[in-house]
Amino acid sequence: MTRASFEKFSAYDATCTYDPEHEWGKVVIESSMISAKDTVCGSQFSLVLDGMVINGPAGLSLIQYVVDYNPNLGSLHIHN
């Protein structure tokens, strides 16, 4: 999950879309905090542009979840 702005959040599945059947590779956030990369196939995804593929071999964006933020409670609700 990344924080896109002061009150906007985004959450993505950590499973690479290139080969989702293999559980040994996971998508991790890079130090730039604006992209994420699969630890096995090397696919890179934008965390700013809705999880879209920046660099393959993946051809599909990361699965994005719905995030509801309640500033009064300071809580996030992540769901699909």
Describe what this molecule looks like in 3D.
Helix content is 0%, strand content 42%. The chain has no helices and 8 strands. The protein has one domain (2-79): Rieske [2Fe-2S] iron-sulphur domain (Rieske Iron-sulfur Protein, 3-layer Sandwich), CATH 2.102.10.10. The strands form 2 sheets. It has a 4-stranded antiparallel sheet, with no helix packed on it. The protein has a 4-stranded antiparallel sheet with strand order 3-4-5-6, with no helix packed on it. A hairpin with a 6-residue loop joins strand 5 and strand 6 (53-55). The chain has strands at 2-5, 8-12, 27-29, 35-38, 44-46, 53-55, 64-70, 75-79. With 80 residues, the protein is mostly beta strands.
Which features would summarize this protein structure in a list?
80 residues, mainly beta, Rieske Iron-sulfur Protein, 4-stranded antiparallel β-sheet
Which helices and strands occur, and which strands form pairs?
Layout: E1 2-5, E2 8-12, E3 27-29, E4 35-38, E5 44-46, E6 53-55, E7 64-70, E8 75-79
Antiparallel strand pairs: 1-2, 2-7, 3-4, 4-5, 5-6, 7-8
Helical content (DSSP H or I, runs of 4+) = under 10%
Instruction: List the total number of helices.
Output: 0
Low-confidence stretches: none
Number of domains: 1
Radius of gyration: 13 Å
Strand order of the largest sheet: 1-2-7-8
In the CATH hierarchy, the architecture is 3-layer Sandwich
Supply the helix-strand structural class: mainly beta
CATH superfamily heading: Rieske [2Fe-2S] iron-sulphur domain
Which series of helices and strands comes N to C? EEEEEEEE
Number of strands: 8
